[in-house]
Design goal:
The protein is α/β, with parallel strands linked by helices and 407 residues long. It has 16 helices and eleven strands.
Length: 407
């Protein structure tokens, strides 16, 4: 696809057509890789993964002068061994610390369906690279929704695995408690194929096709939906029920305050990660990202361990609630993509709104997929299918069944 360089430069931090051709030729000469499960698949790489010979800048200015990585991150190495061809390093929120995808250093990719609106983040360029046909699949990270938010807002499928399922080495961290690695793609089947490579696991040979028991989490997570998300979610539930699946409503009181848990845990861990270059960030960093990192200096000594204990209790309660339920459902994001100008004027509220639903799954160390609730070429909305940690292939199977019905 021909794309103006002014647009390409907001999607990709590094894109080298000659390098892609060389990689494709090397694939043709390697019989094992050529026979791999991802053979010939163009995959964009978020700018926080190590690639040998490339600088891992994580969307920042301060790291652009760093030495190039000496080796590929394990996930990148696995993708290459499976035959995938990396096609460029994608734009992202600085240090992956925002759900809207804006970056004052690199410009904003803009939504694939309306460039005046946000792409979502932090894997912003990742989503747009796939939605515009510049890559077959994208490799992203998800600390509070950073795969699922941009996937949902750009009409894609996305998958956030259980954190321990995919190795984090070689990925610039935001939070060791919540970071996870997952794909964005046009269909959930491609996400599943990539997850198999990333995790080194395989799908069950005989997925179940019995009627499902699905649960919608009630409470604040269903509040504040805009008109289009409300209509699309109601229509999706109608389709699922018409197909013979049971959809019930449930509550989980232990979720109270989970947003504060995420905020305090992530800020505390991010502050420790960035402690050695805080002075530089005060000069060269995104002020909004710096503010979130520095918020950790105002926490009490017991806040961090108390929040981790709260999380452990909620995880246990979620596992108990899940007994007898196949998966949980929510709108991935409560609204369609807001305008970039609106986010600039009301960043804190809209960033929190984008993160609200998907970050729940990171809080619970669950696994989650998002699939489009409708395929019309209007602003996109996503259905989030999620479950406790370790249910990854079960969630991917249910997501594929939902996707087929909603198409």
């Amino acid at each position: 696809m021909d794309m103006p360089m002014s647009v390409m430069s907001r999607i990709y931090m590094q894109y080298d057509a000659a390098r892609i051709m060389q990689a494709a030729q090397a694939l043709d000469a390697d019989a094992a890789r050529k026979a791999g499960p991802l053979a010939g698949m163009l995959i964009s790489i978020k700018d926080l993964f190590d690639e040998a010979g490339q600088v891992t800048a994580a969307g920042s200015t301060i790291l652009r002068a760093a030495a190039p990585a000496k080796a590929d991150a394990p996930v990148v190495a696995r993708l290459k061994a499976a035959g995938a061809v990396p096609c460029g390093r994608t734009a992202m929120s600085e240090f992956a610390y925002s759900g809207v995808g804006l970056n004052p250093h690199t410009g904003n990719p803009g939504n694939a369906r309306d460039p005046s609106r946000i792409s979502g983040g932090s894997s912003s360029g990742a989503a747009v690279s796939v939605a515009l046909g510049l890559a077959d699949v994208a490799l992203g990270t998800d600390t509070g929704g950073s795969v699922r938010i941009p996937a949902a807002l750009n009409g894609l499928a996305g998958f956030k695995p259980t954190q321990a399922a995919v190795p984090l080495e070689g990925a610039f961290p935001l939070s060791q408690t919540f970071d996870s690695i997952g794909p964005l793609a046009p269909q959930i089947a491609t996400c599943a194929a990539v997850h198999a490579v990333l995790s080194g696991t395989t799908a069950p040979q005989t997925p179940e096709h019995r009627p499902l028991r699905l649960a919608v989490l009630q409470g604040p997570l269903m509040g504040g939906l805009d008109a289009q998300v409300t209509a699309d979610f109601a229509a999706a539930l109608t389709v699922l029920r018409a197909a013979g699946h049971e959809v019930i409503e449930v509550e989980l009181p232990e979720l109270d305050g989970y947003g504060d848990v995420n905020r305090i845990v992530v800020a505390t861990e991010a502050h420790a990660i960035h402690a050695h270059h805080l002075d530089g960030l005060k000069i060269q960093g995104d002020p909004r990202v710096l503010q979130r990192i520095m918020s950790a200096t105002g926490f009490g000594e017991s806040d961090y361990p108390d929040k981790l204990a709260h999380r452990a209790r909620a995880m246990a309660a979620f596992h108990t609630l899940a007994d007898g339920i196949d998966a949980f459902l929510l709108p991935t994001v409560p609204t369609v993509a807001p305008a970039i100008a609106e986010v600039d004027a009301d960043f804190d509220r809209l960033n929190a709104l984008m993160l609200r639903n998907p970050s729940l799954v990171n809080f619970l160390d669950g696994c989650a997929a998002t699939v489009p609730m409708q395929r019309a070429q209007r602003l996109a909305t996503g259905l989030m299918i999620f479950a406790p940690g370790g249910w990854d292939w079960h969630v991917l199977d249910i997501a594929a069944r939902c996707e087929a019905l909603l198409q």
